[in-house]
Design goal:
single chain; 203 residues; mainly alpha; Cytochrome C3; three-stranded antiparallel beta sheet; 8 helices; 3 strands; 6% strand
């Protein structure tokens, strides 16, 4: 429901593509009826591509007119051996936990990653479950300066985060929907705290 409301308010082509593709996904892939009399009729069923991936490929984040664009390593090549999430994108946290990838703190191998274990519950979510933001899983990748003071002011209530802003590539959307998991098809990964439980925690 959040996605439907957000798209109606947003009206952006990206969100619109996602809604259209989500609706199309409801129709099952039915293989063609083959004529058994012909050996040439061999069913070739392509693996289903998730609507989120299709939408992102229609809205590239790189400037393909840049002469150096073709020097970039393609994401599918770089992540070929990594476990995939439900949408078909790399499951970065699974890769981190398994040791398949090991982010470095800096150019020097002696630099240490400074992690921060603090969960923040964001309660301005209307009828949706509240959002749990885990600092630890983010600081395993990023230094605090990547997010503070821009785009997030490190003060409770100082950031007007909304799904429409995220879809526009602001706040969480600077990484999510681009590199990290796709928010539109994974609401429960952020909206994970029932409002009743969150309210009880404050009392």
């Amino acid at each position: 429901m959040l996605g439907v409301v957000s798209c109606a308010v947003l009206g952006a082509s990206f969100a619109g593509d996602l809604m259209m593709l989500a609706a199309l996904k409801a129709a099952p892939n039915v293989p063609p009826v083959l004529d058994d009399s012909s050996e040439a009729n061999v069913a070739v069923v392509e693996p289903e591509v998730h609507p989120a991936r299709m939408a992102l490929e229609r809205n590239p984040i790189h400037d393909e007119s840049n002469p150096d664009f073709h020097r970039l390593q393609r994401i599918d090549e770089a992540t070929r051996e990594l476990k995939r999430d439900a949408v078909g994108f790399p499951d970065w946290m699974a890769a981190l936990r398994s040791g398949a990838i090991m982010p470095r703190a800096g150019l020097s191998p002696t630099e240490k990653m400074h992690t921060f274990d603090l969960n923040v519950v964001m309660t301005n979510t209307k009828e949706m479950p509240h959002v749990l933001f885990p600092h630890l899983s983010h600081t395993l990748w990023l230094d605090c300066s990547n997010c503070h003071p821009n785009p997030f002011v490190p003060k409770a209530g100082a950031n007007q985060v909304s799904m429409s802003e995220i879809f526009r590539g602001r706040y969480c959307g600077m990484c999510h929907d681009r590199v990290a998991f796709i928010t539109f098809f994974a609401c429960n990964r952020c909206h994970s705290v029932p409002q009743a439980a969150s309210t009880a925690r404050k009392n």
